[in-house]
Amino acid sequence: MNNTFLKGVSPVIATIILIIISIAAGALLWMWVSGFISSPPPQIQSTWQERIKIEAINIVSNREAKIYVRNLGNVAVNIASAYILTVEGTAIDIIPIEPAISIEPTKSKRNIVKNQ
Questions:
Q1: Which residues are listed as membrane-spanning (predicted)?
Q2: Cβ atoms of 71 and 52 closer than 8 Å
């Protein structure tokens, strides 16, 4: 049997091919992991669509306050109640707002809240 026809790949070429395969696999893994980490799950993405900011509060009396609210989200926001909280976050009072206030995206509104 003649061994001249049984030539293989040289060790240098084999090493280069293995390095290229390793780099490609690492790049694919990095792209998958970075995409997985950077994009939040769908339920978190939907909560970022509704964002409001209380820009100012003017206390008129013991029972009345003017609240300036801006909608920073990209969907309309309906505000149906106001919560008065302590510094620790415990609710002291819940004040219903009737009729509910609708604020369009990127708009702001002033509302007078009265506590009965």
A1: 12-33
A2: yes
